[in-house]
Amino acid sequence: MSTTRLTHLRQLEAESIHIFREVVSEFEKPVMLYSIGKDSAVLLHLARKAFYPSPVPFPLLHVDTTWKFRDMIFFRDKIIKEYGLELLVHINPDGIKRRIGPFTHGSALHTDIMKTEALKQALDQYKFDAAFGGARRDEEASRAKERVFSFRTENHRWDPKNQRPELWNLYNGRVRKGESIRAFPLSNWTELDIWQYIYMEDIPIVPLYFAAERPVVERDGMLIMVDDERLPLKDGETPMMKSIRFRTLGCYPLTGAIESTASTLPEIIQEMLIARTSERQGRLIDKDQAGSMEKKKQEGYF
Amino acid sequence: MNDLSIATAEINAYLKSQEEKDLLRFITCGSVDDGKSTFIGRLLWDSKLLFEDQLATLTAESKRVGTQNGEIDYALLLDGLQAEREQGITIDVAYRYFATDKRKFIVADTPGHEQYTRNMATGASTADLAVILIDARKGVLTQTMRHSYLVSLLGIKKVVLAVNKMDLVDYSEAVFEQIKADYADFARQLEFSEITSIPVSALKGDNMIGASDAMPWYRGPSVIAHLEAVNFRSDVSDKPFRLPVQWVNRPNLDFRGFSGTIASGSIRVGDDIVEPASGQTSKVARIVTFDGDLDEAVAGQAVTLTLEDEIDISRGDILCETKGRPATADQFEAKVVWMNSEPLLPGRNYLVKLGTSLTAGKISDLKYKVNVNTLEHVATKTLGLNEIGICNLALDRAVSFDPYSENRQTGSFILIDRFSNATVAAGTIDFALRRADNIHWQSVDIHKEARAAQKGQKASVLWFTGLSGSGKSTIANLVEKKLHTMNKHTYLLDGDNVRHGLNKDLGFTDADRVENIRRVGETAKLMVDAGLITLVSFISPFRSERQMARGLLEDGEFLEVFVDTPLEICEARDIKGLYKKARAGEIKNFTGISSDYERPENAEIVIDGARQTPEESADAIIETLLNRGVI
User: Of B133, B220, B527, B564, which one is least surrounded by beta carbons within 10 A?
Assistant: First the structure.
């Protein structure tokens, strides 16, 4: 008779590991999409657990829009080196040629070219047949219906009305040449689970999640950090130093900071429990209209 | 202690308590108008899980498309996909997450619409408990029975009967008691261990979290109180040890571990284990994890085991304790929920994913289907979307499993279509059929190679496929003549001829076409065994049946000859006048007209029926046979 009892975090952890192992067993060429954020940090941690003592048996892919926070890139390179991982970085060469950026072309076009298109390019170029992502079902309404193994056509499209049924822990990993799946080991995790797990397992994350004095400007009710000289200042705009942190990380001109003094994980978690403002609120991209995320997903955005 | 460290101490204590919580998965089911989405929306709302911006969106959306006259429409929280939002029904399984002070919850919101049985089965497959909603004004409906049957079929033992919309029946105790009694009466046929009935109004919040002032006559728990207290810990930890091997972990020559999630039971270092299909045994040497070796591991944990002996184990095998072993067989009886618009065809080859094994197999006998509204057994030859059948499955090789009633992890499987790769069905195993163990192959001394060598040839099958009138039989006939003059030993199986004898009991429905090809495939196999070059000329329109025939033979023995003649040409020829009759509707299920022809994708030989003459075609085939060393 055993006395070991699985708490919900251990249960979620085991289920994620199971998904990692299924994908690696059933696909020829998996890759993990690494966005450097906290969910990616947890995803990477779980991947290392799943295959131990073997090394992580797939490369990481970072789709770089060239507008990420400098701290993110620094953190990325440090982690890759420390854990001895293989990292692929892809930047859309068309976007570079056309000098696409969020200020010159607007957030929608920038995201489309530098993120969605760039991701498809990279997946095609390396011929990956499975890509791990850190999406969670609690993030957004259309994600609540996403499968753990989410099938994509040759053109990387997601068809929400024609998804494969997914029962028990039996995932269908059959694809034809050119087709692929996106696998989401964190499907059943909530934002609170992620933070609790980072705390429990002492997982390193980008320092931008912790409050510090940083230069910001206020635009459309959002605090935008002046991360480098590319941020064009409007008339009368002067960067102010504020104690801020980020709940989510993306391209710095599109990611709003929150004013905060939370500089430890317990403080962040506490603030989060009190704040009651959901996670993606800091991202400009979702604001257009309800259902915008679903449209982006159908087109291949994660 | 300053304020900050007090806060830190508090939050640490809070995090500790959070870590101790367990996780209850449940599904909600009900018919379209039972207010299911409102019910879950209310649970999320009341557990204070909604964030301010979600609330702002919800308020705005309620005004735009809401059905509550501009008041908050909780249902909008759940209806994620835009398409369904506009249709006003839920079309898929949505997962929702919330927590109370005592537990974490994952809710599968499953649709109540009739054609979406498969989604309910999906949601139920991982749930420990089901909440079945009933509209108090309507009572127990056909859908209620269907949902309850599915819940029971997927092995859920605990049910909450939420009698909703009590506000619309004046919170009447009599109405509630009547529904409760009706349901208990019906549920006697099902295998539930516990039914808890609660009168609620999801819209108004009665008995959702706390007691309801409007129903003082009800003294039981509220929905949340019950979900927090219900004892759902299934006894998977006390069952026999099972670890389906997912991945062989081999970082270097000194380490060989078997990674997988423990499906049931527990294991300690030093325990005896067996791989039941091969009978190999060993002892557990180490239980390896990233966080260090363990002395013991239990159901639900993802671990890597190393063994004391070098035994041959790979993905798809299952490590078990030696005392309580699973069944190992290549045939079993199962209940199957069909989930695809393409119907089930007995005899057709599917892939069976059971645990971590993937095996080819087929439905060898479809016994009956269940009318989910009445639970009656109905004779059938096929299963359509959302139908449930009881059948025998025959796999290409023996696998190990437990009955679903004893183990949900090792007793469940999915069927995958070999060509579309769709998940077409989900199944639960009832029991092993021992018959397979008792019919052994009769081994004979003179074998296939000896018979073929005597004839100076390699035994093989030339499988001609193509539309009616494509020229298959003409070409096959010419090829046989040429082989005959070369002193080769042949036989020609022609579709029309076989239908006069061996297959005269079969018609032209999809199911009969599958059986037709199965018999011809088996006959061709016997002829190959006799050492003959066997020519088969059959329309054989379905890829999976040609694949099935190919699968009966050894690698290299089966050569598919695709006589690719466009439909217009075949129809213009119309040698037997069949196209004319088909166009007139006199012949049903005619390939190319009223039934599909699935073109081969990787045929060994392709004949361009529009350009090559029969003579040229036959010569091309002879040349291929020479090149392949068949003759």
Answer: B220
> Does position B281 have pLDDT exceeding 70, yes or no?
yes
Chain A CB within 8 Å of residue B301 CB: yes
B535 domain-assigned:
yes
Instruction: Return all residues near A259 (Cβ < 8 A) that are at least 6 apart.
Output: A223, A242, A243, A244
Which letter does DSSP use for residue B238 in this model? G
Locate tokens 């270097």: which residue?
B252
Q: Are residues B397 and B523 in the same domain?
A: no
Within this chain, do residues B61 and B135 fall inside the same structural domain, yes or no? Answer: yes
Residue B394 or residue B512, greater confidence: B394
Asked if B95 has any chain A CB less than 8 Å from its own CB, the reply is: yes
Look up the domain containing B415 and give its range: 327-435
What backbone phi and psi angles, to 5 degrees, belong to B229?
-100, -20
Q: What is the dihedral of CA B41, B193, B157, B175, to 10 degrees?
A: -30
Are B217 and B289 found together in one domain?
no
Using the Cβ of B237 and the Cβ atoms of chain A, whether some distance falls under 8 Å is answered with yes
Closest-CA distance, A98 to chain B, in angstroms, reads 33
CB within 8 Å: B80 and A144:
yes
Locate the chain A residue with the closest alpha carbon to B426. A167
Q: What is the pLDDT of residues B317-360, one digit of tens each?
A: 999 999 888 999 999 999 999 999 899 988 888 999 999 999 99
**A35 pLDDT higher than 90:** yes
CATH number of the domain at B50, please.
3.40.50.300
Q: Does one domain contain both B311 and B347?
A: no
Per-residue pLDDT tens for B358-378? 999 999 889 999 988 888 899
Q: Is residue B1 in a domain?
A: no
A134 CB-contact burial (10 Å; exposed 0-12 / middle 13-18 / buried 19+): buried
Q: Is A263 on the interface with B (CB under 8 A)?
A: no
Are residues B509 and B481 located together in one domain of the fold?
Answer: yes
Q: Let me know whether B203 and B246 are in one domain.
A: no
The total number of structural domains that make up chain B = 4
Q: Can you tell me the distance from the alpha carbon of A133 to that of A158, in angstroms, rounded to the nearest whole number? A: 14
Residue B11 is assigned to a structural domain of this protein = no
pLDDT digits (tens, 9 = 90+) for B234-263: 667 789 999 999 999 999 999 999 999 999
What CATH number has the domain bearing residue B274?
A: 2.40.30.10
Final residue of a structural domain among B269, B297, B320: B320
Residues of B with Cβ-Cβ distance to A270 under 8 angstroms: 7, 11, 14
Pairwise CB contact (< 8 Å): A168 & B125: yes
Picking from B403, B435, B467, the residue at the C-terminal end of a domain is B435
Chain A contact set for B423 (CB, 8 A): 164-167, 172
Over 80: is that where the pLDDT of B435 sits?
Answer: no
ipTM of this predicted complex? Answer: 0.90
| CB-closest option in A7, A164, A174 to B20 | A7
Identify whether B116 is part of a domain: yes
How high does pLDDT run on average in chain B? 87
B228/B257 same-domain check? no
B309 and B341: one domain?
A: no
B117 Cβ under 8 Å from any chain A Cβ: no
pTM of the full structure: 0.78
Residue range B418-422: mean pLDDT, rounded? 90
| Strand ranges inside chain A, DSSP E | 30-33, 60-63, 87-90, 130-132, 149-152, 180-183, 212-219, 222-225, 240-245, 256-259
**Residue A130 pLDDT greater than 70, yes or no:** yes
Interface subset of B 65-84, CB within 8 angstroms of A: 77-83
Burial class (CB in 10 A: 0-12, 13-18, 19+), B480: buried
Phi, psi (rounded to 5 degrees) for A206: -60, 135
- Which helix (H) or strand (E) element contains residue B617? helix B614-627
Residues in chain B within 8 Å Cβ distance of A286: none
Pick from B15, B79, B301: which is nearest to A199 by CB?
A: B15
| Distance from chain centroid for Cα A81 | 20
Size of interface A-B (CB pairs under 8 A): 202
